[in-house]
Design brief:
With 240 residues, this protein is an alpha/beta fold. Helices cover 38% and strands 15% of the residues.
Length: 240
């Protein structure tokens, strides 16, 4: 007999940018939240007894099964992965391993250990073919960089999995705690340093002709929570 899912949501990648904001949001509506991070990732925050932290290797399926079997989460928000396009250019194989194979191992573990859990997976809008107009979920895919390719491979894993999944395609998001390796955070840091008088009044920028849809990361977190409550498994949802 299967153990029923607890009313505890699980966030993978909980020390990451979007993951940490989703964790904050869930703590406003849940008495406890399970949070997974990579042992090699950012330091795990401490001091909040409502958070059940665990360092997890997404490629270790037996370990995933054991952890999920004990936890039995109500909802699994899978945000863990290699998030930076630049890192994917440097090591495309690693991007595929973490984003696609890691998702495959997680879904296998969910099927075996906690099939009653709802699953929301954070994909990426970078799976779409480049376009000069607003994109909707039915538009053609055609990623143009290794990161987008790894996220499209992740979607293919999801399509073939026995576990029902609500798939999100978030566009760019920005906000507090974002690494300065991302453009909006870099601009904000430079402007703050200029205003503080610790930097010459010169803003270093990249390609200013690029057009991006940027969402506040806290709105992205709200969207993930809404998809867990009302999203239809087997469907794709843009977050923008």
């Amino acid at each position: 007999m299967r153990t029923p899912a607890r009313k505890v949501p699980l966030v993978t990648g909980a020390t990451g940018f979007a993951g940490s904001h989703l964790l904050d949001r869930l703590l406003t509506t849940h008495p406890a939240v399970a949070a997974w991070s990579s042992a090699s990732g950012r330091p795990v925050p401490s001091g909040d007894g409502r958070v059940e932290w665990l360092a997890v290797d997404l490629l270790d399926r037996p370990g995933l099964e054991r952890s999920l079997g004990v936890l039995q989460p109500s909802v699994i928000y899978h945000l863990a992965g290699l998030p930076h396009v630049g890192d994917a250019w440097k090591n495309g194989g690693r991007a595929l391993e973490v984003n696609a194979l890691g998702t495959h191992r997680l879904l296998e573990a969910v099927e075996r250990a906690t099939p009653a859990s709802r699953v929301v997976i954070a994909g990426s809008a970078l799976v779409y073919r480049q376009s000069d107009r607003a994109l909707h979920e039915g538009d053609p895919v055609g990623p143009s960089d290794p990161y987008g390719i790894s996220k499209l491979a992740q979607e293919m894993v999801v399509e073939r999995a026995a576990t029902p999944v609500v798939l999100a395609r978030p566009f760019n998001h920005a906000g507090p705690r974002q690494s300065e390796a991302f453009v909006t955070s870099s601009f904000a840091k430079q402007i703050a340093e200029i205003e503080a008088g610790v930097r010459e009044p010169l803003l270093l920028v990249g390609n200013l002709d690029a057009r991006r849809d940027i969402t506040d990361v806290r709105d992205t977190a709200r969207a993930y929570e809404a998809l867990a409550a009302r999203g239809r498994p087997g469907h794709v949802y843009n977050i923008c």
